[in-house]
Amino acid sequence: MSDYDFRPGGSLKIKGGASEGGVVKKKKKSKSKGDKVDAILEKASSPVPASPPGSSGETPVASGSSDDRKTAAERRFQQVQRKRLADKVKKMANTTHKDRVHEFNAKLESLSEHHDIPKVGPG
Q1: What is the pLDDT of residues 40-51, one digit of tens each?
Q2: Angle at alpha carbon of residue 110, lines to 107 and 116, rounded to 5°
Q3: Any domain includes 109
Q4: For the chain, what is the HEC assignment?
Q5: Exposure of 62 by Cβ count < 10 A (0-12 exposed, 13-18 middle, 19+ buried)?
Q6: Global confidence as pTM
Q7: Which residues contact 48 (CB under 8 A, 6 or more apart)?
Q8: What is the pLDDT of residues 51-78, one digit of tens each?
């Protein structure tokens, strides 16, 4: 036989794997929807800080901020968007899973038969 012995067998070796003392790190889990909803509710329901005496009714903004460059229409749009988001979050927080399932089933019943899944196969 030759100097080189190429016999198949054994598992593949991965550089830096756990077998050679490397550490395998787990991915962090993202927060659940409930935590996000709570955070949004807290942010939306937090009171606006009172302005110090002698200042105008505007909220203090750091110079060079993106709010300085926004038009009145853009500010109104963002305010309406925040209000809609807060309303949506409140509605989602008030409805239970049972209510959502009931609404979904009612919606499916109102659809025409065109949306039904056709049977495939014999019989």
Answers
A1: 667 766 655 555
A2: 95
A3: yes
A4: CCCCCCCCCCCCCCCCCHHHCCCCCCCCCCCCHHHHHHHHHHHHHCCCCCCCCCCCCCCCCCCCCHHHHCCHHHHHHHHHHHHHHHHHHHHHHHCCHHHHHHHHHHHHHHCCHHHCCCCCCCC
A5: exposed
A6: 0.32
A7: 59
A8: 555 555 555 545 556 778 899 999 999 9
Provide the 10 A C-beta neighbour count for residue 89: 19
Amino acid in position 100? R
Number of folded domains that form the chain: 1
Residue 101, domain extent: 69-113
Q: Is residue 53 part of a domain?
A: no
Q: How many CB atoms lie within 10 A of CB 86?
A: 15
Distance CA 95, CA 17 (A): 48
1 Cβ contact list (under 8 Å, min separation 6): none
HSE (side-chain half, CA atoms, 13 Å) at 93: 15
In a domain, 16, yes or no: no
In a domain, residue 56? The reply is no
